[in-house]
Amino acid sequence: MEHISVMRDRCVDLLAPSINAHDKSVIIDATLGLGGHSEALLQRFENLTVIGIDRDLQAIAKAELRLASFGERFKSAHSVFDDISGIINNFGFSQINGVLFDLGVSSMQLDQEARGFSYSHDAPLDMRMDQSTGITAGDIVNTFEPGEIVRILRVYGEEKFATRIVENIVKARAIAPLNSTVALATLVKESIPAATRRTGGNPAKRTFQALRIAVNDELGAIERAIPQALARIVVGGRVVVMSFQSLEDRIVKEIFAEASTSKSPRELPIELPEYAAKFKLVFNSSEKPSALEIEENSRAASVRLRAIERVAA
Ligand SMILES: C[S@@+](CC[C@H](N)C(=O)[O-])C[C@H]1O[C@@H](n2cnc3c(N)ncnc32)[C@H](O)[C@@H]1O
């Protein structure tokens, strides 16, 4: 299935004010994917340069092809987005007008059976967004200490039956390495009490989510990248983030809350400028897509969009 960009026009609208306020603007698309959001931005604003980051070489190659007609206005970087500050420097910019994060994996990645993201297709247990480097999900299940695998399933998958699943992983890997998605999905299903199996979708979903987050250090990358993005935007510039699960959204919410809260000591009767928050939330809480968008693109159902704006240097 082709990847459909989620809340595309809303993201472009949110990034528009700072782009329109400057003769030349730069936006970082921190999760380039197939370049759907970048394309919409480049089409709408003729004065705009977009730097697209992705850790997936295939995504970069496809996006470069799609965006070739924009020439020098589109630049790409193969990297994890937690190097956002270094990438901005490498392209010779000091400040930028906005950053967009459309977190998680693309439909292209999910649909490529051989990459092992999906429990419904048999494939090697890989799950790396960047197949040129790093550990695989197979490395985790076959070599990590049982206690560490339990922690991964509990924290990243919110899996209640983590201990039972890991006991069975340990038994299985003592006989032969667990190398396939379907073998793991079957083991997870058999580790979960029959009554629970009947509710709440495929029981392997939480384990697969947890392993994917661990393999790609997804939460760590977000924690490191958003503060860098905030540090590099101009006054009036915005950071827009779409999260697709609650662990990601919680991190974004906390960083945005901290950045938009005054540091003024309580005992001071007035707020001195040095304590005032340098950022404000563009809207309280998070936004969701319309019912129509969810109907047309089921991937949009779980999205939470948040946006923050720099109000002082
Ligand atoms: C949901 S897709 C983006 C889709 C894109 N906005 C579009 O409209 O075509 C997310 C992309 O971000 C990439 N990605 C996710 N986490 C990343 C990270 N920490 N660093 C760099 N790229 C990342 C994935 O490889 C994937 O291609």
Automatic annotation (TrEMBL):
Name assigned to this protein: Unannotated protein
Sorted UniProt keywords: Methyltransferase, S-adenosyl-L-methionine, Transferase
UniProt lineage: unclassified sequences, metagenomes, ecological metagenomes
Pfam family, one: Methyltransf_5
Source organism per UniProt: freshwater metagenome
Family listed: Belongs to the methyltransferase superfamily. RsmH family.
UniProt keyword annotation of Lipid metabolism present: no
InterPro entries recorded: RsmH, SAM-dep_MeTrfase_MraW_recog, SAM-dependent_MTases_sf
NCBIfam families to which the protein is assigned, alphabetical: 16S rRNA (cytosine(1402)-N(4))-methyltransferase RsmH (TIGR00006)
UniProt GO BP: rRNA base methylation
Signal peptide: none
One GO CC term on file: cytoplasm
GO molecular function: rRNA (cytosine-N4-)-methyltransferase activity
Keyword rRNA processing: no
